[in-house]
Amino acid sequence: MTKAMQDVIDVRHLIAGEWIASPATDVTTDPYRGTAVARVARGDAGVVDRAVAAARAAAPGVAAMPAHERAAILHRAAALIVERAGEIGETMARETGKALGDATGEVRRSQDTMTLSAEEAVRIEGSHVPLDASAMGSGKIAFMLRFPVGVVGAVTPFNAPFNLACHKIGPAFAAGNACVLKPPPQAAAVVDRLARIFEDAGAPPGALNVVHGGADVGRALVADPRVDFVTFTGSSGAGAAIKAATGLRHVALELGGAGQTIVHADGDLERAAPMVARNAMRLAGQSCISVQTVYVHRSVLARFTEMVVAEVERLVTGDPLAEGTDIGTLIDEAAARRVESWIAEARAGGARILTGGTRQGAAVTPTVIADPQPTDRVVCDEVFGPVVSLVGYDDIEAVFRSVSESRYGLQCGIFTASNAVMLRAYRAIRTGGLIVNGTSTWRTDQLAYGGVKDSGIGREGPRYAIRDMTEERMILFNM
Description:
Layout: E1 9-11, E2 13-15, E3 18-20, E4 25-29, E5 36-41, H1 45-64, H2 67-83, H3 85-96, H4 100-121, E6 127-129, E7 140-148, E8 151-155, H5 161-174, E9 178-182, H6 188-200, E10 208-210, H7 215-223, E11 229-233, H8 236-246, E12 250-254, E13 260-263, H9 269-281, E14 293-297, H10 301-314, H11 333-348, E15 352-355, E16 359-360, E17 363-364, E18 367-370, H12 377-380, E19 387-393, H13 396-405, E20 408-409, E21 411-415, H14 419-428, E22 433-436, E23 452-453, E24 456-457, H15 462-468, E25 470-478
Parallel strand pairs: 1-5, 8-9, 8-11, 9-10, 11-12, 13-14, 13-21, 14-19, 18-19, 21-22
Antiparallel strand pairs: 2-3, 4-5, 6-7, 7-25, 12-24, 15-18, 16-17, 20-23
Helix pairs in contact: 1-7, 2-4, 2-6, 3-4, 3-6, 4-5, 5-6, 5-15, 9-10
Protein name: Aldehyde dehydrogenase family protein
Domain Aldehyde dehydrogenase: 27-474
Pfam families: Aldedh
């Protein structure tokens, strides 16, 4: 840990280009060491009101900026992200317990998010509608053009605090909107670093406003009718509450998943086992597409299980800041206790714990479970911890039905050498994405990312987010 990182970071709200303190503060804590990382201004409904008013006032100016100017600011932000990645990664590892390599990697990857947003800022286009297909339209000309919605309200989670904030503010600004961002209280200092990058890149005052606080601040933000569009990443329960609160306003909700992956009889086990093991445990399992339930054809189940357990046991757990650590802690001890209780529930129902299953403070040892019940929460709910369950099957069609009937539908992986099986899975499984010869855990920033059912509404990725953060307007010329 560097000397600078040992100091407690002062985090304030950003409103209309000014850094604002609050009388009350909260403290973010290193879940591995238990030490204070940041002292954070605690917002309330009044602070939210000021931030939304600032965004509303700034929105016309942001919309009027030429696209190339918005793109230039985003390109400068991307360069600053790379320049400051080491410092921000260390802050993230301290606030979230994420292994330093993963934390720094998340920050560096966010260069892509900002660069893609910059590139899409100059590609927002409309269309000509041919009207001479009908007698009424003959002789007339119509165009459909896209315009910014105005004010975007964004609420982001702790598990990828930097990159997911980039996925909100990058497309929002690229589309010509002003934004009010409510970061996760557990990782406030990480998002503060991003806000300062955006300011240093030349964003005009009010284009990005940041309000810190708990769930009450998020509720005030999404309920404010001056917010034209709400984008949220988090739990399915919170997403449902946001949908209820926003009424007729549009939303994008990236919610939970159950991380199903299928290993068929003809799948490449040498490829599948390491990917399953590492993608189940990476980030301590705190990813909505983390591998959670793996359906394995019974003919290869024993061998595959042996390979996964061996790979999991090679992972290095411990101090998130130590070089070589693969798995750090969960976000806090309460989260670790919940995961521990779900493992105990599966064991009580007859499941076998093949490795792991213990907890120390906020850390849970990487856990492999065999023979869980379909109703165990480690199977049917989102674990959000370093736990993977292996389930044998004989009939792959039954697996397709089981995955499709899950309340979640974010992403699914399948390992098979058969094009016929792959295509059948693609047609049969109701999910946001299917990863062939890979696990559920895969995302690149230029693709559409999102789910169906309780996994959400809409798609992320700059191109697709910009589509949601703009609205179509028709103009008709009577010639």
